[in-house]
Specification:
- This protein is of the alpha/beta class and about 525 residues long.
- The longest helix is centred in the C-terminal third of the chain and has 23 residues.
- The strands form two sheets. It has an eleven-stranded mixed sheet, with helices on both faces. It has an eight-stranded parallel sheet with strand order 1-9-8-7-6-3-4-5, with helices on both faces.
- The chain contains 22 helices and 19 strands.
- α3 runs parallel beside α4, α5 runs parallel beside α6 and α11 crosses α19.
- Helices cover about 45% and strands about 15% of the residues.
- The chain folds into two domains: about 230 residues, Rossmann fold (3-Layer(aba) Sandwich); about 290 residues, 3-Layer(aba) Sandwich (UDP-N-acetylmuramoyl-L-alanine:D-glutamate ligase), CATH 3.40.1190.20.
C-alpha cells in the first residue's frame, strides 16, 4: 500500500512544495520554535495530542481506546490523547513502556496531569499478559511509543507488543511515525508498527514516503501545530515532495507564434538486434511529450526494421559492428549531427553493452555539448564509476533503476542493490553532488537529485508500471521536455511526475496486471490534460 499524504486545510496554499525532513531537521525546527518564537514545548505537545484526538473523533466516533505510550515526547503526546478522551467520557487505557520515574520534562508533566484526571495507566507488561482480553474490549490502538527519535533496532518486550498490535484487528493510529520505522530512511528497525493512519506534525519525514516505511505508515496526514511557516519552507531543507500543483507549474507554454523548431530537435541513440522496441518507445514518448522533432539514431544493419515502423520520427543510420549493435565509429556521425541539428541527446535504451558502446558513451558525454539523458545500457556502459562526468560539456541526466545505480557506484568495491535501497535519498544525493549530474533514481518512490544537493520525491506511479520498457518511455519523456528548453532539473521532475501520472491514468483502464509500457505512452496526453485542468 502506498502512503497517501494529505495536508490540513489550514496549510498555506501558496507555498511551492512540501518539504520533507529528517528527524534531526524536525528537532531543529522544534527547538527554534520553542527558543526563538517562545511557544513552550508543553503547548506544542498539547496541540499535537489534540490534533490526534480530532482525527480519532472524525474517523472513528465514540470508541474504546488503548494508548501504547513511551517515555519520551511521543509518549507525552499519547498522554494528552488519553486524558482528553477520558475527560470526554471515553473508555481509555494507557500502557506505559518502562518506569514512570524515567519520565522527564513535558512528558512527565503530561503523565502527572493524566494521572490526576483519573486516566488508567498501567505498565506495558500488563498489556503483554492480558492483551487478549484487553483487545476484546477495546477497538482502537494509539501508537505513542517511540516517535522519530529511534536510532537502534527494537527487540524484547517492545517488539512483542508491536507484534500483538499488528496481529490484532483493531485499527492503529501512529503519532508522528509508526514505532520502529527509521525517520530518515524508511527502514524497519527490528520490528515496526503497521499503522492504518499516521498523523505527523509540521512536515512529513522521509521515512513516511520511502519504502518499507510508506507501507507501514498507512494514510498520512500532516498537521501544523504552531511551527512558524518560514521554518517549514526554508531552502536549508534539501528534500521536496512533488505533487500535482508543483508539477503543473513546470509544464512549458505553447505560444501561438511557434513552429516545430521552437520545441527542440531530440536525437535518440537507441536500439540493437533484439531490442528495437526500446528505441521506438523512447522516440514515441519523446514526441508525445512535446518535442518538435525526433530523430532516431540506430545501427545501420537494422535500417529496414526501423524504416518500416517509424512514422513521425526520422532516422539516422549509424555504423555498427555488423551484428546489429553500434560501433564506436558512430561517435563522429552522432557528434556531427548534434552540432548541426540536435538540441538534445538521449542515449541508452536497448543499445547493448560492449567495449565499443562504453567508448561511444564516454565520447558523447565529453564532446556532445548539448543536454543529454543517459539510461539503461548507456548507464551500464559507465559501470565502475568511470570519471567522465567531470569532462562533460553540458548537463548530464542519468536515469538508473536500483540495479544500474549499484553498478554505477561499484568502483573500488561492489555495491549491492540492498545498499542502494536502504538509503535512496542519501545515495542519490551523494552521487549527484559528487559527479555534477542530475540523477533520476527509479523505483518506489522515484527520486530526482540535483548537483546542488536538492532532492525531489515523486508522488505518482503504481505497481502496474513495473514492466519492461517503462524506463525507455521515461527517457523519451525527459528528452522531449529538455527539447522545449526547460531546465534539466525541471525536465527531470516534471518528466518523472508525468510518467507516473500517465501510468496512474492507464491503470484505471488496464489494471495493474495488464499495464504495459506503450499504455503509458498512450496516456501521456491525458496526463498533460489532467495537469492543465486541475493543476
Amino acid at each position: 500500500m502506498k502512503s497517501k499524504v494529505s495536508l490540513n486545510a489550514s496549510e498555506n496554499k501558496e507555498k511551492n512544495a512540501m518539504k520533507v525532513v529528517t528527524a534531526g531537521e524536525m528537532r531543529e525546527i522544534d527547538r527554534k520554535t520553542i527558543e526563538e518564537t517562545g511557544i513552550p514545548g508543553f503547548v506544542l505537545m498539547e496541540r499535537a495530542g489534540l490534533a490526534v484526538v480530532a482525527m480519532i473523533k472524525e474517523r472513528f466516533g465514540r470508541r474504546r481506546v488503548i494508548v501504547l505510550s513511551g517515555r519520551g515526547n511521543n509518549g507525552g503526546d499519547g498522554m494528552v490523547v488519553a486524558r482528553t478522551l477520558h475527560n470526554e467520557g471515553w473508555d481509555v487505557k494507557v500502557f506505559l513502556s518502562g518506569r514512570y520515574e524515567a519520565l522527564q520534562g513535558d512528558a512527565l508533566q503530561q503523565y502527572s496531569i493524566a494521572r490526576k484526571c483519573g486516566v488508567s495507566i498501567d505498565p506495558l507488561e500488563k498489556f503483554l499478559m492480558q492483551h487478549s482480553s484487553i483487545l476484546n474490549k477495546h477497538a482502537l490502538i494509539v501508537d505513542a511509543l517511540l516517535g522519530t527519535g529511534l536510532d537502534k533496532n527494537i527487540g524484547g518486550k517492545l517488539s512483542e507488543v508491536i507484534g500483538i498490535a499488528n496481529k490484532s484487528e483493531a485499527p492503529v493510529i501512529s503519532i508522528d511515525i509508526p514505532t520502529g520505522i527509521s525517520s530518515d530512511t524508511g527502514q524497519i528497525m527490528g520490528n515496526a508498527v503497521r499503522a492504518d493512519y499516521t498523523l505527523t506534525f509540521g512536515l512529513p519525514k522521509r521515512g513516511h514516503l520511502l519504502y518499507p516505511g510508506a507501507e507501514y505508515t498507512g494514510q498520512l496526514s500532516v498537521e501544523n501545530i504552531g511551527f512558524p511557516e518560514h521554518m517549514l519552507r526554508t531552502e536549508k531543507i534539501a528534500v521536496d515532495l512533488i505533487g500535482k500543483k508543483e508539477a503543473a507549474a513546470l509544464v512549458p507554454e505553447r505560444p501561438a507564434f511557434s513552429h516545430k523548431g521552437t520545441y527542440g530537435h531530440v536525437l535518440v541513440i537507441a536500439g540493437s538486434k533484439g531490442k528495437t522496441g526500446a528505441a521506438l518507445m523512447a522516440a514515441k514518448a519523446c514526441l508525445r511529450t512535446g518535442a518538435g522533432l525526433v530523430t532516431l539514431g540506430v545501427p545501420e544493419s537494422l535500417a529496414e526494421v526501423f524504416q518500416s515502423r517509424v512514422t513521425e520520427e526520422m532516422t539516422l543510420l549509424l555504423p555498427d559492428k555488423g551484428d546489429g549493435t553500434l560501433s564506436r565509429k558512430a561517435s563522429k556521425q552522432v557528434l556531427d549531427f548534434v552540432h548541426e541539428k540536435a538540441d538534445v541527446l538521449a542515449i541508452g535504451p536497448g543499445i547493448g553493452v560492449s567495449d565499443e558502446t562504453e567508448q561511444l558513451v564516454a565520447s558523447l558525454i565529453q564532446n556532445a555539448g548539448v543536454p543529454m539523458v543517459i539510461d539503461a545500457d548507456g548507464i551500464n556502459s559507465l559501470k565502475g564509476g568511470k570519471p567522465v562526468f567531470s569532462r562533460a560539456r553540458s548537463p548530464v541526466i542519468l536515469t538508473p533503476h536500483p540495479g544500474e545505480m549499484a553498478r554505477l557506484l561499484s568502483g573500488r568495491k561492489d555495491i549491492s542493490v540492498k545498499t542502494v535501497e536502504e538509503d535512496r535519498v542519501g545515495t542519490a544525493q551523494a552521487f549527484a553532488r559528487k559527479t555534477g549530474t542530475y540523477l533520476v533514481l527509479k523505483g518506489v518512490p522515484a527520486l530526482t537529485a540535483a548537483p546542488d544537493g536538492k532532492v525531489f520525491i515523486n508522488s505518482t506511479g503504481n505497481p502496474g508500471m513495473a514492466s519492461g520498457g517503462a524506463g525507455d518511455v521515461l527517457t523519451g519523456m525527459i528528452g522531449g521536455l529538455l527539447g522545449q528548453k526547460i531546465s534539466p532539473i525541471h525536465a527531470c521532475v516534471l518528466g518523472v511526475y508525468l510518467h507516473g501520472l500517465a501510468g496512474d491514468i492507464a491503470v484505471l483502464e488496464k489494471g495493474p496486471h495488464s499495464l504495459i509500457a506503450t499504455d503509458i505512452i498512450e496516456h501521456i496526453p491525458s496526463a498533460f490534460l489532467s495537469l492543465k485542468n486541475n493543476g
